[in-house]
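Project standup — Tuesday

K.O.: blocked on the structure for the chain from last sprint. Re-posting the sequence here as requested.
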Amino acid sequence: MAGFALAASISPGPVNLLTLRAGALRGWAGGLRVAAGATLGFTALLLLAGLGLQSAWVRWPLLQQALHGGGLAFLLWMAWQLARDDGSLGTAQERAGGAWLAALAQWLNPKAWLAALAGLGLFAAGGEAAQVLRFAAVYAVVCLGSMACWGLAGAWLGARVRGGAGLRRLNRGLAVLLLLSALALL
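H.V.: unblocked you, prediction finished:
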């Protein structure tokens, strides 16, 4: 369980890049706030999928298509926002919203849905609440640690590209990575 959670949560994805950026902009504490939001969002998704939402996924294929389209649009929107970012450090309101954006982002993140559904199929296939809760607890701990690593990496990068042109280059590089992730979904 822990190995699966580690492989799925530490590998690059849209929310990992949000956490990296938060670390670059706000230091490790800012990255950790976003990591916590991402972990809470994913854990909620995992629990709801394991306790019944998964059956709706199977029953209504249109829901799968809507999620695919919504996830693709979200990735493109994030890439656009990063590409046009001016390198400023933002406002206190933007800093506070990072954790909530990361939590919401998990629900639009195709990687999160794949990890949740594949993990549930492997470790909680019976759909018993105890299995789902055990898997979600293990995943939450591993996910928070993995996402915190991305925040720490962002803080390290941020110390080298504080504001201005360096941050614009970092944001544009992250935008390209998100764009490539979106194109892989087509």
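K.O.: great, moving the ticket to review. The mean pLDDT is 84. The radius of gyration is 16 Å.
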